[in-house]
Amino acid sequence: MKIDGKNVILSRFTPDDLDFICELECNKDIWLFEEFIESDMKVVRETYLKKMTSQHSFDFVVKSTIDGDVKPIGLAQIWRYVEHRKSWEIGFAIHPTYQRNGFGYEATRLLIEFAFESLQAHKVVGMCNCNNLKSIRVMESLGMRREGTFQEELFWNNQWHDQHFYSILEKEYLNISTKQNHLA
Predict the structure, then answer these.
(1) What kind and span of H or E run contains 11?
(2) How far apart, in Å, are the Cα atoms of 51 and each of 2, 79, 96, 105, 120?
(3) Domains present along the chain, CATH in parentheses
């Protein structure tokens, strides 16, 4: 499965992507705001192999053309949050070398579009450490609204921190899409 954007491609991961995914998932520079980063690449590899055929989660390698070659630059994921409510949760990460180029924004926009147009989601949610300003900006710029803050939810950097909860409803997505299509 592949989802084409203007500057990025989301490709459902294959066994050929596992080395990249393992390096990304174990890279502490990427997961600055997470409580736990798996350091064992074998564990990451086994986890992704088990998820490979799931219909409850979709893991995409974010790729872009860099210096004439299509290269993996990040990860974009969507998984069932609450099945009977038709809710899906998103997550995304772009390698630091490729950040600040709009790739995270576009990959996340494509995930949200995939959720509503292919998965028939009613709601898409995302959560982040309250200190993760880049993720906050991406979600808010895509029309997701902060529904709440879980107080002292994350034990990060040896102290408790808040976690923000964002969402966008299908009707909000459709309203934004309609406005964008009228402007195009």
Answers:
(1) strand 9-12
(2) 17, 10, 25, 25, 21
(3) 2-183 (3.40.630.30)
Q: How many residues does the chain have?
A: 184
Query: Running along the chain, 184 residues long, what does each successive block of 10 average in pLDDT?
Result: 93 93 92 90 92 87 90 95 91 93 96 96 97 96 97 94 97 86 59
Check if the beta carbon of residue 152 is closer than 8 Å to that of residue 143: no
Among 55, 99, 111, 53, which residue's Cα sits nearest to residue 74? 99
Q: 18-36: buried (b, 16+ CB within 10 Å) or exposed (e) per residue?
A: bebbbebbbeeebeebeee
CA–chain centroid gap for 134, Å, is: 12
Record the pTM: 0.90
Q: Pairing relation of β-strands 87-94 and 123-129?
A: parallel
Bridge partners, 98 (sequence order): none
Helix (H, G, I), strand (E, B) or coil at 131: coil
